[in-house]
Amino acid sequence: MKSWRISVVGLAAATAISAISFSGTAAVAASCPIKIGGLAPLSAPGAVGGGEAMRDAMLFAERDINAGGGVLGCDVKVIIADTEGLPEKASAIMEKLITQDGVVAVGGAYHSSVGVAAKDVSNARGIPTVFAETWNDTITGDKQKYIFRIAPLSSWASATLWQAALLVPNVKKVAILTENTDYGIPAAEETTKGLKSGGVEAVTFGIDIGTQDYSGIVERIKAENPDYIIVLATGEAGYNFAQQAADAGIGPQDLPFQAGQVALESKAWWENVPDGNMAFVQRIGTPVNLWNEKALKLNKDYKAKTGKGAIESYALEAYDSITILAQAIIEAKSTDGDKIVTALENISFEGTLGRIYFPYGTQKDPSVDGKGDEWWHQWPDPALTMIQYQKEGQDSTESPIVWPDAYKTGPAIYVKK
Amino acid sequence: MEFSHIFWTVLAWMIFWAVVGSFVTRRVYLHRDLDTSSAAFVGSMLGAATGPFGLAPLWMNTPEITRRLMVLPALGAVMVIAAAFAFADPSNNCVSNGSFVASQIVNGLILGIIYGFMALGLTLIFSILGVVSFAHGEFYMIGGMVTYFVTTVWFPGINPIVGILAACLVTFVLGALFERMFLTPMYEGKIERPVEYGILVTFGLAFTLQYFIQATVGANPVKAKRFVDFPRIRLPSVEDPWLIKTSRGNMELFDTVSISNPRFMAAVACVLVLLSLLYFLHRTWTGKALRAVSLDREAAAIAGINPDRMNMLAFALGGMIAALAGAMLVQAFSWLPQVGAIPAMRSFVIVVLGGLGSLPGAFLGGIIVGLVESAGTGCVPDAQKAASYIPAYGMMVLTLTLLLRPTGLFGRRFSGGAHGKL
Question: What is the torsional sign of CA B186, B189, B194, B197?
Answer without folding.
Answer: negative
